[in-house]
Design brief:
Blueprint (H helix, E strand, L loop, with lengths): L3 E7 L5 E7 L4 E6 L2 E6 L5 E7 L3 E7 L4 E6 L4 E6 L5 E6 L4 E7 L4 E6 L4 E6 L4 E7 L4 E6 L4 E6 L4 E6 L4 E7 L6 E7 L3 E6 L3 E6 L5 E6 L8 E3 L4 E6 L4 E6 L7 E7 L8 E2 L6 E5 L2 E2 L9 E2 L5 E6 L1
Antiparallel strand pairs: 1-30, 2-3, 3-4, 4-5, 6-7, 7-8, 8-9, 10-11, 11-12, 12-13, 14-15, 15-16, 16-17, 18-19, 19-20, 20-21, 22-23, 23-24, 24-25, 26-27, 27-30, 28-29
Length: 311
Amino acid sequence: SGLKIVGRIPGLDGGWDYASFDPARRRVYVAVGNAVMAIDADSGKANPNFAAGSHLHAVVPIPRSNLILTTNSGDDTARIVNAVTGKLIASVPTAKDADGAVFDPASGLVMVVCGEASAVTMVDPRTAKAVATLPIPGGLEYPAVDGKGKLFVNVEGKNEIAVADIATRKVLARYPMPGCERPTGLAYVAGNRLISACANGVAKILDAGTGREIASFKIGAFPDSVLQDAGRGLAYIPSAITGTMAVISLKGAANNTIVDTVTTRPGARTGTVDPKTGRVYLPTAHYILPAPAGRRPQPKPGTFEVLVLGR
């Protein structure tokens, strides 16, 4: 792929979760602790306190607006924020444990996955209202949409993908994924395909219409997201334990296969892609090792940064 680490952007200490890219403002957003970190993609300058939150997880830019939506498990809300100033506009209650989220262009709603409630709260960012909550038993992780009215959600406790109709608020199907344990990251990609990353170091590519398995392969351990570079026909899965990122070809002779494994750093498990430049942004930190038995390792103070991968 030609990708390698070409830059490092430091930030403030704190646990982090998902990152996203705002093409209208050419910004990278990273949810870090109780603040949204905003990075200018062209200059590399960062504002580590762009917007306030409460145990943030996702930052979703709303197309054709001056709005972003953040998910906050600290107070079970989706916050509507001014994308220019970072100021809070409204706080919308969600089901418990607001986590991953995705904007659905067909409905104009944001699908907010609430893990502990095992439900999806559908939020209208323009009216700042929750319009529906869809229960999906099994413990939920990350959502994806096809832009045509379908919602897909990784069901972590059942090792499957649930398929729902956004308009009718009904679950239509469940796609089992044998060999996948605790599916985390999920993406809907070209060719009506789904890519799911599993905590046991497996990736699955499924037909989004039928659930048929197209491909299955080994990746690094403990991935937490699937990133898509649609313009270049690639997908990326960063894995925290191994400090690697699988590069998957989505077109050409090597379709549906891993074409490269890039060295990143242990801890890098989520990220985002600049669709213009193809650069990949991965938040991570150094860790205090070994970790106490039965507990996750803790990041070393002063080491949080966003890795920039380029060609």
